[in-house]
Amino acid sequence: MVSTLVDKEKLEEAGYLILQAVNAKLSTEESKRTAQRFAAMIAEQCAFMAIDNSDIAKEFNKTFECRNNDIVIVKNIPCFSICEHHLALMYNMKISVGYIPNGRVIGLSKIARIADAASKRLQLQERIGEDIIDVLEQILNIKDVIVHIQAEHACVTARGIAKPGAITETIACDGVFCEASRKVEFLQAIKL
């Protein structure tokens, strides 16, 4: 379901413009295809930019009947994204997702795929969590979802203030997870 709306030609032109702007030598063997590699990388990282959360929900809607009404958690899903403010990488990202089923559970790999899809856009870390919640609520018809994300942001670690190792943590939640005790239960379960 990766978007075909990404204009790779424009991305390649942008890559060339960046290389020219920094006076890069474009004649070396190593740099001959740099703009093409740049275009492919950005296209991959923004693969879900033009895809709505409802379309993601349709794509990954694989659920199973289940009587369990205890919390389901998938933790430490590795992802990365691009910050929409600086076009800088959000990296070493770990996403943990919890929800309380209401008669149905989603395939566990689908949670990782949803996290990946929400990340493959120009994003804010906070919005990634909100998007994951939105998709899961659409698929499972529930409101009890929580997402914890921790990541390093190149806009903090490699430019401006330049503080390598600074980690940003965010929590997005809905339903019972807005209650402090349920939020603490989830955070303890993921060992934070």
| CATH fold-level topology of the largest domain | GTP Cyclohydrolase I, domain 2
Radius of gyration: 19 Å
Largest sheet: 5 strands, mixed
As residue ranges, the low-confidence spans are none
State the share of residues found in helices, binned by percent: 25-40%
Q: What is the distance, rounded to the nearest whole angstrom, between the alpha carbons of the first and last residues?
A: 34 Å
* H/E element order: HHHEEEEHEHEHEH
Shape, per Cα inertia axes: elongated
Within the largest sheet, what's the order of strands?
Answer: 5-2-3-6-7
CATH architecture descriptor of the largest domain: 2-Layer Sandwich
Descriptive notes:
The chain is of the alpha+beta class. The chain folds into 2 domains: 8-45, no CATH class; 53-189, GTP Cyclohydrolase I, domain 2 (2-Layer Sandwich), CATH 3.30.1130.10. 39% of the residues lie in helices and 24% in strands. It has 7 helices and 7 strands, in the order H-H-H-E-E-E-E-H-E-H-E-H-E-H. Strand 2 (72-83) and strand 3 form a beta hairpin. It is elongated, with a radius of gyration of 19 Å. It starts with 7 loop residues before the first helix and ends with a helix.
